[in-house]
Amino acid sequence: MTVSWRDLTSRRRARVPAVRGVLARPRLQAALDAARVLVLVAPAGYGKTTALAGSMAGSTHAWLTLDADDGDPQVLAAGLALAAEGLPGGAAVAELLDAGASPRRVAARLADVLDACGGLLVLDEAQHLGGAPVSDVLRELLGGGLPGVNAGRLALLARVPPALPELARLEAAGEVVRLGAAELAFTRQEVGELLRAAGLNPSGPELRLAHVVTEGWPIAVRFLGQAVAQGRVRLAEMADLDGGEAQLGTLFTYLAREVLGPLEPALRELLTRGSVFEELTPELAREVLGEPDGDRLLEALSGGTFLTRAGEAVYRAHPLLRAHLRAGLPRDEVQRLAARGAAYFERMGRPRRALEAHLLSGNVGRAAALLSGHGTGWLAQGRTGLIERSLGRLPRAAWTPELHALAGDALRLSSRYAEALGEYARATPLLRALGQIQVALDTVQPDATWAALEVAGTLAPDPAPVQRMRAENLLNAGRLAEALALEPELARGARFALRSGALEQARALADAAARGEAGGTRAAQNHREGLLLASFVAALQGEAQAAAGYAHAGLAEGERLESPFVCGLALARLGHARLTAGDTEGAAAAYEDALARAQDVAGRLRVEPLMGLAALAGRAGDPARARTLKAEALAQVNGDGYMTALLHLAAALGVQEAGDLDGPGLSAAFEAFHACGDAFGLACVALARFAADGSDSQAAAQAAVRYPFLLARHSLFSPLPHPSGRARLLARLAQLHPDVCADLAPAARELGYADMPHPDETPGFGVQVSVLGRVAVTRSHEDRPREWGRARARDLLALLAVHPEGVAREVAQEALFPGAEPGVGERNFRVTLHALGQVLEEGAASGTFLERGEWLRLRCGPDLHVDLHAARRVLDAPTGDPGRLETLLALPGRVADSDLDAMQHEARHHATRLPEALVAEADCALLAGQPLRAVRAAERALDLDPAHEPAAHALMRAWHARGNAAAAHRVYTRLQADLADLGLSPLPETRALAENGR
Predict the structure, then answer these.
(1) Element (H, E) at 728
(2) How far apart (Å, rounded) are the C-alpha atoms in residues 80 and 93?
(3) How far is the C-alpha of 744 from the C-alpha of 697, rounded, in Å?
(4) What is the DSSP letter of 238?
(5) 3-state SS, residue 772
(6) Burial, 516: exposed, middle or buried (Cβ in 10 Å; 0-12, 13-18, 19+)?
(7) Predicted confidence (pLDDT) per residue in 961-993, tens digit
(8) d(C-alpha 570, C-alpha 564), whole Å
(9) Are residues 526 and 442 in contact, defined by beta-carbon separation less than 8 angstroms?
(10) How high is the pLDDT of residue 3?
(11) Which pLDDT tens digit goes with each residue over 866-882?
């Protein structure tokens, strides 16, 4: 009797597993979508199946869960045939098997089917593959094992790396994406999303602890969410996993069985007794656990289980597995092993491991001594969690005054300042005073520091540290000369350079500090963070993009360091960056977010976002609200003279931008900056006063010479927001003080002028002429386009925009008024020309933007821009120029409608050139191996012209490069329909590309 191939497998294995509660994970989805061949390797419980099954909704796919029998090619081929039945054309795979085809031919046909439909084949439990019997089958599924050969997409899910030589060549060609446990583990944000989906609302500390104890292990996070939702575990009271009975240890019986079930007794014994320690080494196994064969046993445990390598000959189990295993050991056995381990670690000079072991053994006195001796050093490394956890396991009765001070330091570094002061109050008088000083220095509260400095000065055996603190407090107070007299080394710091006006030096020092900080093991520096200092200086220098980059990096660093203070300050600095860029809505959002973060941290953290909001209120024409916000911020500065000066300046500039004058605010800023000795702040005030009423031009000229970027760029504290207004200010200063012209010439060139302009050549406002989409004129200081006095004035503007070289007067008159009698036509044209002049030049000298006479021309330059001219420049630019594609994508697709022949010709020209340029960029992107850029360019070209065959050609090539033949075929189908409407059909090469990807 002949056995059917269908008897070799089970239809159940060809079904996609049902998954519930799938968390959207964009970072994983992007990797899954981009992979031609995906290899996903992680131990049980990491959600491999869930990640794939939950990501395939709406896609074309096939699934096969493998087992040990699939090492037989016939069994594997039978499973593949069942999996293929749900694919378009997949029945052909089963037909081959019915006809007695070989497993290799079956796999080749499945690869063709996947390629034709752009489908994905998932092989779950792929660790069962490998070896010669199935190598031919796998080679066909992978496209012959040759890079560049078209084949469908394949995903391999395994608990251990599958031994598949067929992957090697594809991996070398960059067609294989590998993901492991690190990528599958939930981030803290994802842990929070999952807990909130379960109806929970974890606080920041609770979320941090949940992430720490689970290490992002997906199944552990899900079990934790269920346990908390059911009331079996309280997040706020989760026991320390190394501190005895762990609430979560009983939740993982299933996982423990999976790990322990197949283990031989010696391995299980070592893993169970070793659960007392966070890390295992062969030496520890011999000396503490009494296992002479520890190196072999540990190596045997490290493959495919939850025991992983943490270094050379160092092994580590997941903390939840350790808690579960340790719960099965008698308490006296745990204490005995921990005591032996503590002695071993002390001999090895590993105080942190010794501390943990002493705490487990119950040796409270020695644990307290180790914590007192090493805690400060661990805090300097940013290990606040270690200190808090260790202190939490020590009975409060065993705490010494020094440990109370250490607890205060840990709380301070976590931005929990009120709690920190409570712990410092239980320390020795000297440590109490030093703690109070450090809180005030960290939060920049000079007035709150003086009394504690006096106490510390009388008690400290070494006056040098207290003197350094006093000098920093003087710096915070804005008393720079006194600070430098006490501590000359302060002159080498970024904050001293910033507050004295040496911005270039401050930027360089902040950059250097940031390079030494980012990603390192350290404690948060609060307002001293190099990235955030660099962000502030960049905003002062008018470099908005750099300022935003520093701020985003600083925010990421604050989240990494788990510092609410750093995160709040980073958001304020992001607000400054956006304000510098002219993004007032984005700036307001960042400031509001910063205020919310500061609410439970420190009042001083509210000052900068309040400063930004005060400036925005002034710009919006609400000086009363600006004064209210400034007053609220001033109440929090606590003696910081520099910050006081910035608050007065920011609010005054905001009011001034709206057309009003805040003389008292500028005077207060001047007095405060003068007291601090900040040259930059004084320069800002001088330029603001000159912009307001022309006063003290000499001081303003010197300010512009020293800080030319205040006029060349839009700085956070520039006197005027728009370049045209700053150009006029520059021209006036150069006219009044000719001796500074040479120094200010670079600023003029940065504003777009070849030479220093005369005041008559700078209207003080900019004009944007739009011809693409619709004809409009918009001024830099006005919210909406200008009204047209006469419709023909709009047509005349469009005509002049199309001809940047100009138009003869009689030609323009005939174009606008064809066939009119000479007198009538000339009169109408004169009125039209006057109306256009009013639209363009109201408030400026006649001829500033419009050249009149027998030859008419727009005077384009720094103050007058025409969008059509900018479009022509980018269309003429070489293909592949940096930024060209992004600019082309943003260009309007049409020229404004008009009955003028010149405009209609321009419209046809633009409608042809833009798709051609986009197709050229798509081809360039494909050559560079960037198919996604090619897709964007080609799709935009087809949006503009659906029957543009070269664009469709480029888009199909891009989709084939992405391994998505189905998408390429859809492009061809749409092109066929659009060409048919025109009575045309695709070219043969286009048909060939649609059919076989070539």
Answers:
(1) helix 723-736
(2) 8
(3) 14
(4) P
(5) strand
(6) exposed
(7) 877 777 888 899 999 999 999 999 999 888 888
(8) 10
(9) yes
(10) 57
(11) 999 999 999 999 999 99
Calpha distance 656→22 (Å, rounded)? 53
Pairing of strands 807-808, 855-858: antiparallel
Residue 97's closest CA among 114, 121, 73, 129?
73
Going by C-alpha positions, the residue among 815, 838, 779 that lies closest to residue 899 is 815
Q: Flag whether pLDDT at 42 surpasses 90.
A: no
List C-alpha distances in Å: 459 to 32, 402, 454, 486, 906. 63, 15, 9, 19, 83
Q: Which two tokens stand for residue 219?
A: 């199944």
- Provide CB contacts within 8 A for 872, sequence distance 6+: none
Determine the Cα–Cα distance for residues 79 and 825; give it in Å rounded to an integer.
Answer: 85
Strand partners, 769: 777, 866
User: How many CB atoms sit inside 10 A of residue 148's CB?
Assistant: 10
Integer Cα distance of 98 and 636 in angstroms: 82
The residue among 141, 198, 186, 162 whose CA lies nearest residue 21 is 198
Q: How many angstroms separate the Cα of 686 from the Cα of each of 481, 505, 690, 719?
A: 23, 22, 6, 9
Question: Tokens standing for 415?
Answer: 């931005």
- Largest Cα separation within the chain, whole Å, is 115
Instruction: Give the model confidence (pLDDT) of 141-155 as tens digits.
Output: 876 434 444 456 888
Residue 936: predicted pLDDT: 94
From its phi and psi, is residue 818 left (phi > 0), alpha (psi between -120 and 50) or beta?
Answer: beta
Residue 742 one-letter amino acid: A
Scanning 280-416, the segments in alpha helix (DSSP H) are 282-287, 294-301, 319-326, 331-347, 351-361, 364-380, 384-393, 401-413
Q: How far is CA 705 from the centre of its chain?
A: 37
Query: Among residues 243, 183, 181, which one has the least CA distance to residue 209?
Result: 243
Token output for 1: 């009797």
Q: Which contacts of 626-634 are long-range, i.e. CB under 8 A and separated by 24 or more positions?
A: 626/651, 626/654, 626/655, 627/651, 630/665, 632/606, 633/606, 633/607
Q: Which residue has the tokens 């295993």?
A: 325
Report the Cα–Cα distance between both ends of the chain, in Å, rounded: 47
Residue among 181, 168, 258, 189 nearest 218 (CA):
181
pLDDT in tens, 97-114: 888 888 888 888 888 888
For 256-281, give one letter per residue: b (16+ CB within 10 A) or e. beebbeebeeebbebbbbbbbbbebb
